[in-house]
C-alpha cells in the first residue's frame, strides 16, 4: 500500500514537472516571473509561520502579497535578465566559466540586488527615505554576509549544471529558505 502511494505521488510530481517544462518552453519569461513571485511569497509564508511563529490567525496576508509583488515585478525580471546578460559576458559551460559567472554574480550583482530588494521592501512597508536608509545601514551588512555563506556554492552548481532557462527556477527553489530570511530581515522593524 505504501509503495502504491509513493508511486502515485512520484507519478503526480513527474506530471507536474512535465507540465512546468511545457509551459517553460512555450512561455519562458512569464513562467520564470510567476515562479519567482510565487516562491518569494512562499518564503514570506515560511518566514511568518516558522521563523516568526505568528500562527495562521496572525499571518499578515498583506505582507505576503507585498513580497510576492516584489517577486513578480522586481526579482523575476531582474534576475532572469541578469542570467541572460551573464551568459553573454562569460561564454561556455566549463567549470572555469561557472566560477567566473559566480564571481561576477557575487561581486557585482548580489550587493546591488540585495540593497535594492531591501529598499523596495522598506518603501512598500511605508518607510520614509530616512527610515529606509537607517534600516539599510542596520541590515545590509548582515544580509550580505549571509548571502556569501549561501549563494556561491549554489551559483557554481547552477551555472555549471543547469540550462539558462531553468536557472531562475533553481535559484528560487533554493531561495525559499533565503527568501524566508530576507523577508524576515526586510520586515523586521
From TrEMBL:
<dbReference type="GO" id="GO:0016020">
    <property type="term" value="C:membrane"/>
</dbReference>
<feature type="transmembrane region" description="Helical">
    <location>
        <begin position="103"/>
        <end position="124"/>
    </location>
</feature>
<dbReference type="GO" id="GO:0005739">
    <property type="term" value="C:mitochondrion"/>
</dbReference>
<feature type="transmembrane region" description="Helical">
    <location>
        <begin position="67"/>
        <end position="83"/>
    </location>
</feature>
<dbReference type="InterPro" id="IPR007248">
    <property type="entry name" value="Mpv17_PMP22"/>
</dbReference>
<dbReference type="Pfam" id="PF04117">
    <property type="entry name" value="Mpv17_PMP22"/>
</dbReference>
<dbReference type="GO" id="GO:0090207">
    <property type="term" value="P:regulation of triglyceride metabolic process"/>
</dbReference>
<dbReference type="GO" id="GO:0015267">
    <property type="term" value="F:channel activity"/>
</dbReference>
<keyword id="KW-0812">Transmembrane</keyword>
<dbReference type="GO" id="GO:0006225">
    <property type="term" value="P:UDP biosynthetic process"/>
</dbReference>
<dbReference type="GO" id="GO:0048742">
    <property type="term" value="P:regulation of skeletal muscle fiber development"/>
</dbReference>
<dbReference type="GO" id="GO:0001889">
    <property type="term" value="P:liver development"/>
</dbReference>
<dbReference type="GO" id="GO:1901858">
    <property type="term" value="P:regulation of mitochondrial DNA metabolic process"/>
</dbReference>
<comment type="similarity">
    <text>Belongs to the peroxisomal membrane protein PXMP2/4 family.</text>
</comment>
<keyword id="KW-0472">Membrane</keyword>
<keyword id="KW-1133">Transmembrane helix</keyword>
<dbReference type="GO" id="GO:0050935">
    <property type="term" value="P:iridophore differentiation"/>
</dbReference>
<protein>
    <recommendedName>
        <fullName>Mitochondrial inner membrane protein Mpv17</fullName>
    </recommendedName>
</protein>
<dbReference type="GO" id="GO:0010821">
    <property type="term" value="P:regulation of mitochondrion organization"/>
</dbReference>
